[in-house]
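Note to self: user wants both folds in one dump. Writing first protein now.
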Amino acid sequence: MNSGRLTALARLTFGTLASRVYLGLVAAVTVFVAVDTLFVRHQDASFAGVWLFFLAAPTVFVFFMGGGVLGDGVSGSAPFAYAALVLSVLIQSAALGAFVRLLRDRPRPVHPREA
């Protein structure tokens, strides 16, 4: 990929307000999950990490289905889960940016003025 395409992809992923709000929400939930996992004592397991998967759905599940083809050792590992989450969030942020750009840059219909 040349630098022009990378720049355009970065603008789609990080450049629109909708993408930034989505990424900010993911970052806030990630901090919440990290604090809950590291500093809060639970008698039972916490389901805080599920919120990250809700934000990364449906693309994260596509990665997990693809990882299932590679075997349980790959798809069940923590590095694969983290990489799938990060890639899913970035893909969805780029898709959100592309959708916003599509709506913003579409041609508007011309209406004749009424006299």
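First done. Writing the second protein, which came from a different request thread.
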Amino acid sequence: MPDTSSTDAPPPLPPLTTQAERLIELGVHEHAGMSADELRAFAGGAGGEGGDALLAVHPDRAPASAVAPLLRHGGKPGFVVTDMPDVDRFAPCAVELPDAPLYLVTGPDRGDHMADWSPEEALPALTGQDRTPLLLTEGIHWVLQQPEVLRRNHCFMTIGSRLRKANGTLDARTPAIWISNGTGRDGRERRNAPKVGWCWWGNRHTWLGFASAAGRRHA
């Protein structure tokens, strides 16, 4: 089985206190219905260390539709594709989140070595290596803190988020974050903008890895 680590890994994450200030600057705490002091207190109480820990807001408090427009790439704001109006219904699937508004995601990896795998193939490979797929909101938080994580031809899927239909089956769409080419319904004005979209569960894409984490914890 191929190694799922990235050969071109981003630098260590900033200290948690720095990450908290970044989220405050962007107004994420307001979307989450919390004060800036609450966010700072959590980051400080978690030790303030960064490195391999990403500060994340629970998707119930700051959904993808609220935080995706905060993304930036080449000066362009992020957006959700028009045929994904139900983006906030993509919820954690087979992923256990801390029961708290704020938590840490440890050891995020872009999964470049799984490019050209399908989600169907990638999920058992990740779990077999004791990795857990990132949620869509966690992937967005990662790019908010480290925009360089999102690179053309090195983007990623976030298959920890799935949409369960009324009959109990899972929707075949799986969310991903990549860079728009400005074609089709995206519009030319969105060329090079960070894009939240989706791919089919059984399809492969050479330019999409599978973002994962070592785990999650509440401080």
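Dump finished. Worth passing along: The chain has one domain: 16-217.
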